[in-house]
């Protein structure tokens, strides 16, 4: 079919030089696909190199501590990916003798591996003829064939998967999957693609009908919740402070943070001072409380906007279970806290 021939020819001329494309090792492909979920290639690349250097095989990853894995993942976001990655590595290492499942159906059984990731590993590692359907694929096919189905609906995913399966050359599914994703990433981009240089400019239905920027259709809106975090940074005469692990389910699970006071809105000095002295740190003699922010820091997650204030609290007594500045940097923190520590704003 002309579509796949034109697409693959374009890909062979324009593909990016990416390390996971130079191997059929399912471990490295799995690693890259998990990292690139909701992450740009440029952001994910350094992490891929760090992980493959630190954990060259799935067994190396399995035998590492979760804390070490989270520390290496620090800054990549969506930390459940890292926790699932670690658990799956342990399962493959311990239950499957370090050997990855070699089919789409079996790969789907792995924790943290959905239809897209299973299809990517199955086709890239084992050349199984199963289509990948991600945002890039939705966009390319919706525009080329003028498909107005809502991509937020599960039925639409099946529709696009069936179409991609039809278009895919069964003797080389890997290159077709790579090509259509790359085409969406580089040429058929979400906003204002340069259709004048597109290899499909004569046959793209959306271009002919002036609908390029209207497709694909996605109706689902993300509801954003605002939360208000006040981080309380204790400091004693030795410069030691206090950190704690977030053990509750939700954002940043098993990462570390300073003692947290979550409020219903942005609070002022008087409210923090009262709460700190009378409730949270009543056992300490408070020397001073200082607001470390010139303004509230807003940290945006996919479904939440965190309004963050840092409060430095100097105390007379030695901080119980305190950590010094050097040890502090060894813990895995959410990136917003890590950046705060790195900039030494802790010494505000």
From TrEMBL:
Catalytic activity annotation: Hydrolyzes free adenine bases from 7,8-dihydro-8-oxoguanine:adenine mismatched double-stranded DNA, leaving an apurinic site
InterPro entries assigned: A/G_AdeGlyc_MutY, DNA_glycosylase, HhH-GPD_domain, HhH_base_excis_C, HhH_motif, MIG/MutY, MutY_C, NUDIX_hydrolase-like_dom_sf
Residue span, HhH-GPD domain: 35-186
Cofactor note: Binds 1 [4Fe-4S] cluster.
Domain of life, source organism: Bacteria
Sequence similarity: Belongs to the Nth/MutY family.
Record-given protein name: Adenine DNA glycosylase
